[in-house]
Design goal:
Order of helices and strands of chain A: EHEEHEEHEHHHEHEHEEHHEE
Shape of chain A: globular
Helix content of chain A: 25-40%
Oligomer: heterodimer
Strand content of chain A: 15-25%
Structural class of chain B: alpha/beta
Number of domains of chain B: 2
Shape of chain B: globular
CATH topology of the largest domain in chain B: Rossmann fold
Number of strands of chain B: 12
Largest interface: A-B, 38 and 39 residues
Helix content of chain B: 25-40%
Strand content of chain B: 15-25%
CATH superfamily of the largest domain in chain B: P-loop containing nucleotide triphosphate hydrolases
Strand order of the largest sheet of chain A: 6-7-8-3-9-10-12-11
Order of helices and strands of chain B: EEEHEEHEHHHHHEHEHEEHHHEEH
Structural class of chain A: alpha/beta
Radius of gyration of chain A: 21 Å
């Protein structure tokens, strides 16, 4: 999918999210504007209807902040977010609330995301009470329907989160996200907290639901193998910026950015005969407080040279494969 | 290679209000000097309880009910507590799963390493300080002098785990127990921690037992692997052998249940869930999830049989199909 060539379902352009730093000393403030953390710095991506975009990167790269901006749990500092025909970044108040019916989110920690004092039925019917005019009987019917959809027995309706297993809890969260039949779901590490056998089942279920209900996903994860399984296209983030974007097969077969290569090389393959190329970055992710001129990776990159101090312009190296690296 | 640690038919139970929880059931395995032995399985497979048992740190209501633990010729289960103290933390060290919460938040990390050196190696203050900085350098902490003066909250997760490894190694242990040492760390940081463990294991000749739920970590780091399910040992083999010729139905199911980065596979979740370990009946605990279950599996726990060079498997179905060489 070459970008922008046809109308995508989700379109994010130039998204910025800067957090002011509280408690910064007067010394730093005296020299110029108040310091900010540039959690997300000029991010753009598109998702076609019915497809999954994988968003990968390590802790602190800003991927969860992107998720919270796209769902408008946070107000972006700049940029546009269009989902379907709605310009989400411009909406406030009642129109925003109404638009949210179509945009749902599933969080990483399935227990923390559920109210411990709400039964499964109440938790799943809550969005129905907020967003629909269904009668209590109709709501109950819809809860039954959606629980069956995510593979839970309807006798789970009266249970509370502590009575459920980790996999069942995440199913409840997914049921809740799907209750109002949204078109777009943001999945923020939905399988990370789950055990191997449950993880496989949730992955398959998410895939099946997307196909059957025609959902569009933004799938956020640091687990590259799962992203490879679920996503058709992948965006790689580092320090709040996109370093590489390509169709999944292309990205995994021909990673071009040193950061992507390092990420892929670090994934332990469950086969002792397959040894990844050793490609290691030095040091750790620098503080997002520092302002980075030039390539954000240059302090850790084995390929870095003088040119990397110059700002990087993302370049399309092959159709649909965009890399932000001077050497790509 | 001779076995440094021998675990023989070890069982651990917990007495609870609901009944007796059989967390570890008749596990037999050994760890040799210079090797990394992986213990892999889902949550509830008894991996971590086994580690506590090896340290004899199972607390009531838990209890080691039977079995033997031999380490460097000592019978760990018969040793008086005072003598055990000299082994635990010194000859056998632990790298825990949550490095940040395992460090004392009110003491600089350097002092924590120092204290250990003074306690176990009898160093004076100045020698301990220098040795502590050398230890931090050995686990590849950049600028170790400055880092030694910092607190846990000032360090990243990967850095905290390096400090824990430095502390574990400070006493030059012969056996290092690492309980999910990379869980919660980013992949690139995790890969570096594992590489570090491997190098340090080679340098020191210590045995490392690496507990993990990640088959990728096992494949890339370990020499031998023990697969555990619901407190029972399912299979034990050299790493190449295990991935090439997995015999236990559970091992085979585990391999098929994870998405892979290097190839397209048809993902197949493992059937069912880890069974409840309360008042368990005899027999194989995988029986209700197993596609190959036989009548015998419900009656009797399958014995660990030899299935090739260093390859052991506990499965009635494998014994039946003449896989044994």
């Amino acid at each position: 999918m070459p970008w922008g060539s046809r109308m995508s379902f989700v379109s994010v352009r130039g998204l910025d999210k800067h957090f002011p730093v509280r408690g910064a000393g007067w010394l730093s403030r005296r020299n110029g504007p108040a310091p900010v953390v540039r959690a997300v710095d000029g991010i753009s991506f598109d998702i076609d209807r019915g497809r999954t975009l994988g968003l990968v990167g390590e802790s602190g790269c800003g991927k969860s902040t992107v998720a919270r901006c796209v769902t408008r749990l946070l107000a972006p500092s700049a940029g546009t977010i269009r989902i379907g025909d709605k310009q989400l970044d411009r909406l406030e108040g009642e129109p925003l609330r109404a638009a949210r019916r179509d945009v749902q989110m599933v969080f990483q920690d399935p227990l923390a995301a559920l109210n411990p004092r709400m039964s499964v039925e109440r938790a799943v019917s809550e969005p129905l009470r907020l967003h629909t005019t269904l009668s209590p009987a109709e709501q109950r019917e819809r809860v039954r329907e959606i629980l069956t959809e995510v593979g839970l027995r309807t006798d789970a309706m009266g249970r509370y989160p502590h009575e459920l297993s980790g996999g069942q809890r995440q199913r409840v969260n997914i049921a809740r996200a799907l209750a109002c039949a949204p078109s777009f779901v943001v999945l923020d590490e939905p399988t990370s907290a789950l055990d191997v056998s449950l993880r496989a089942r949730v992955i398959l279920m998410l895939e099946e639901l997307r196909e059957r209900l025609g959902l569009t996903y933004l799938f956020i994860s640091h687990d590259l193998a799962t992203v490879k399984y679920l996503a058709q296209r992948v965006v790689v983030m580092y320090l709040g910026t996109v370093v590489e974007e390509a169709d999944t097969d292309e990205l995994f077969a021909h990673p071009r950015h040193p950061y992507t290569r390092a990420l892929l090389a670090a994934v332990p393959v469950p086969d002792p005969k397959v040894r990844g190329e050793p490609f290691v970055l030095s040091g750790e992710i620098p503080s997002p407080l520092e302002r980075h001129e030039g390539c954000p990776l240059r302090s850790r990159c084995p390929m870095a040279s003088a040119i990397c101090a110059q700002p990087v312009v993302p370049r399309e190296v092959s159709p649909g494969h965009v890399v932000a690296c001077h050497f790509a | 290679m001779s076995a440094l640690l021998e675990v023989e038919d070890l069982s651990v139970e917990f007495a609870t209000d609901d009944g007796v929880v059989s967390a570890v059931d008749g596990v037999t395995l050994s760890a040799r000097a210079g090797e990394i032995l992986g213990i892999v399985g889902e949550s509830g497979s008894g991996k971590s309880v086994l580690i506590s048992a090896i340290l004899r740190l199972v607390r009531p209501p838990g209890r080691i009910v039977s079995g033997r633990l031999r380490f460097e010729g000592n019978d760990l289960l018969a040793l008086p507590e005072a003598e055990l103290e000299a082994i635990r933390g010194a000859r056998i060290a632990l790298v825990p799963q949550t490095p940040r919460t395992s460090l004392n938040p009110l003491m600089t990390v350097g002092r924590q390493v120092e204290r250990l050196l003074r306690l176990h190696r009898g160093m004076d203050k100045r020698a301990a300080r220098e040795a502590a900085i050398a230890m931090l350098e050995r686990v590849r902490i950049p600028d170790p002098k400055r880092r030694a003066g910092q607190y846990a909250h000032e360090l990243s997760g990967g850095m905290c785990q390096r400090v824990m490894i430095a502390m574990a190694l400070a006493t030059e242990p012969r056996l290092l127990l690492a309980d999910e040492p990379t869980t919660g760390l980013d992949v690139s940081i995790g890969a570096r921690i594992l590489e570090l463990l491997r190098q340090l294991g080679e340098e020191s000749g210590a045995a490392i037992i690496l507990v993990t739920h990640d088959l990728g970590v096992v494949a890339q780091t370990c020499h031998r692997v023990a697969v555990m399910h619901a407190g029972q040992l399912s299979e034990l083999a050299e790493v190449d052998e295990l991935f090439e010729r997995p015999l236990h139905p559970y091992t085979r199911a585990l391999v098929r249940s994870i998405p892979r980065i290097d190839q397209q596979i048809a993902l197949k979740p493992i059937a069912g869930t880890v069974p409840s370990l309360v008042n368990v009946r005899p027999g194989c605990r995988y029986v209700r999830r197993c596609p190959d279950a036989l009548a015998a599996c419900r009656r009797q726990r399958p014995p660990l049989i030899v299935a090739g060079n260093g390859h052991r498997v506990a499965c009635h179905a494998v014994g039946q199909s003449n896989v044994v060489r």
